[in-house]
Structures are given as structure tokens and as C-alpha cells.
Write a structure and sequence with these properties.
- This protein has about 525 residues and is mainly beta.
- It contains 2 helices and 38 strands.
- The strands form 10 sheets. Strands 22, 23, 24, 29, 30 and 31 form a 6-stranded antiparallel β-sheet that branches.
- The N terminus is likely disordered.
Length: about 525
Amino acid sequence: MLIGLVWSKRIFFILSLLAILPELSAQIIQAGRVELSMNDADAGERFKAIGLDKNGIMVYQRLIGKTEDQLEMTKLDTTLHEDWKGYIGVPKNLVLAHVQYNKEIQILFLLFKQQYYLGGDFFMASVRVVNGSFGTYLIKNLIPFNPSEFVITGQAAMIGGYFNYRPLVLYYNFALQQSKILPGFFNEQGELNQLKAYPDGSLDVVVCARNYEKKKSLWIRNYDAMGELVKTTVLQPDENKNLLFGRSVKLSNGEQIVAGVYGRFTDYSRGIFVAGINTVGEYGVRYYNFSELKNFFSYMKAKRQKRIKDRIERRTVRGKKIKFNYRFLIHDILPYKDQYIMTGEAFYPHYTYPSSYNYGRSRVYYPTASGFGPGMRNDLVFDGYQYTHAVVVGFDSNGKIQWDNSFEINDVKTMQLQQFVEVKPEKDRIVLMYLFENKLRSKIIRDSEVLEGKTQDAIKPNTLGEKVDIRGIESEQLNYWYGNYFYAFGVQKLMQGPIAARRIFFINKLTHN
């Protein structure tokens, strides 16, 4: 009897512990949530949200009218309660291309472009987030291009894009209400890597293009607040290398750091480069092969990681370097203590043989005897970009790498390339987080040390008993907000048991414990 009593107490203790484990293991704190009901099927394409730092969040959607549409703007505070609501008239022939918030002047800018043809003038609205007052600007433009970049300073708006495969930047001065193309472009075909604006109104533009030796190099152009070209620096790669992509950041002493990826060929990266540029344009470039990074392969399972590291060691003993080829999406450079960090996400295009009438979420059509129809053809079909992991690298102001770390993201596949991992440097740690299929994955690091391994937490609805239908998720996104807070938003279908309850647009305020 005594033995039975002891075991009963142990079982009760274990069951009690299991009951509270989910709460103890939850690392993401859901600090607030707002749900907006959606009735029509196309409303999901209209609802969007953008963080306004400590001023809250702006929710906006386009309402269709008979002669003119309305852009409904709803300002929420940091507790996700409504401050005010307003409307901006939008002509039928314009579509919203970009939204950008400038926290120095606390104004939200919305850029509209022509809907039915490439080119034409741009229409821009500016909204003061404190009270909702707004103004409008007509930005004259004579060159047909699609705006891919939109950057705001206190003095001007910059719109980046391509004309005949050549990058360009349109500069619009608020005070003068005049536009011009920034000097230094239209020479060669290239890729617009970055538009980087600073609080003093200056601007850095990074372009990747081929030099006279047909090797990919980086052109870094510095402009003042009036859009005048101050300096151009061309980073030339070493022999048998190409500089494939770069991001820049300006230091307090006027010097500049450019970091990115390089490769033997132009499609795949073999490592990371960091370049330091002094005030007169002199520079030095450091190259780091992926095999030289301590934690580059830490996202792999232990056995596979050991095989690769043993292979690297064997090649190193024989005086040879092992070459790894990856595709990388590079994020902006962030300040961290007395260092800087750069993050990149590794991915590869995935192809599949359509073995049935449907593949993915779309139906595939092939030529048939009677026209076009779903077929069984054995051609490879693009099935999305498969992500493998994120790499975080810390380096000093001289461009020397101090540490590296990685974050597994191999559960993500998307049809369009986009940044998934949000990186938040804090005083004594770095928070890594991303959202996919309503699950928040997070990891906490301190330089090369892992403080907390990968965790997974689901975003929860407001109503008890409701669950998120994964098949009904649309346009979910996670962004850094302010302080230690992130915000997630998107469209969800909520289920009450087996029955579809409702379709909502949600915003979640999140922080990490």
C-alpha cells in the first residue's frame, strides 16, 4: 500500500509537470493581437500593415469606388488600439507600388505608379502619423521604368529601377518639387544591390556590374542630400573571383564598409567578402571561404556536419581548399556593440516532375491535340525556392570577421525570393526569428555561442477553441517593430472544430522571453 501511494504521487507529479511544460517551453510571448473580419474573397490582397516604430502600426486597404478608389488608413498604437482613421483618394489608373516610413520626420510615404503601362509620372502621398494629415506630390518622370526600390530622407525621395536592363535612381526634392536622374548611371547593364539613406540626407547606391575584364565588380556611389555625386568607388575582385552582391554601411569617421558574397562564377557564392573604404576611396578586400567559417554547417545534422568537417580537414592537411557553392540572399548590415553583423539566407531553386494533374497550388497545362489541357508531360517544372539556413557573421570596422553562426530554415519553400529571418541585435544577445505556416521559429545567440537552440511556437487566435487552418494562410509576414518587439501580420482562416469559422486579417505583437 505504501509503495502504491509513493508511485501514485510520482505519477501525479509527472502528469502535473507535463501539463505545464507547454507554457514553460513557450519562448514567444504574444503581447497583443487584433483581428479584422474579411468577407469578400479579394480583401486579402488589399489589407497590409507597416510598423511605425514607437508610433504604432498603420493598417491600410484599398476600397473600390465608382469613379475613384479610396485608400483607407487606420493608425493603431503600440497596444494595437485604434488612434485614428482616414481616407486618401486614388485614381483608378494608379496602383500602390511601395510604402516607406521615415521615423526621423514621423511621416509615412506611399508611392503609386501607372497601372496599365510602364513609365509615366509617379504619384506620392505623405501622411503624418501623429494626426493623419496628408499631402500629395506629382513626381515627373520621362523614362519608362518599374520602381523596384523606394527610399526616403528628410529632403528627398529616391526611386530605383531599370531602363533597358540598366539601373537608375530617380531623385525628387521635396522643397524644390523637382525630379532628376542621379548622375553616374546609364553606362552598363547591372544589378541594383542597395539604396542606403542616412539621417543627414546622404545616399549610397551599390550596383553590381561587369568590368572591362567581364568580371562582376561593385560600383559604390555616394551622393549628398541634394543628389549630387560626391564619390565613386569601384571594388575590383581578385583573380578568379567575382563580387556577386554587396551591402554598404557608413561609419562615424566617414569611412565605409561593404560586405557581401563572392564566387568563382557568377551564379553561385563560394564565400563572404568584407571591404573597408577610406575617405579618399582607397580600399582593401578580405575573402572568407565558406569552409573557413566555424559554424557555417551547424544547421546540419551531427553526422553530416562531421563528414563535411572531416573532409575539409583532410583537404586542408594536403594544402587544398574545398569549394562549396551556394545561392545567397543578403540582408542589410546592422551595428552590433563595436562591430557589425551581416546576415544571408541560403537557398536553391527546386524543380519537380509533375506526376499528376496538379502540382503545388497551381494546375499545369500542356499542349494537347485539342488545344491546351492538364497533362502528364515529364518536363521539369519550377516548384519554388527551397531555403536551407541563415548565416550570421560579425566583423569589426577593419573588415575582419570575429565570429559566425547559423540558423536552420530548411522548412521554407516559396515561389518568390524574400527575406524570412529577422535579426534583432540586443545588448548581450542576438534574436533570430522567422514565420512560416503560422509557426514562429526562433534562436538566440551570443556571437558564435548558442544561448537557446531552435524553438517553435504557434500564433494563437483570440477566441478560445479556434484554430488556424494552415491551408487558409495568405501573405503572412514577420517584421521587427521597436524595442524588443516584432509584429506579424497576414490573412488566416480560423476553424471552430471541423467547420470554417471565419476569415480574418491579423496583426500580432510579439516578443521573445
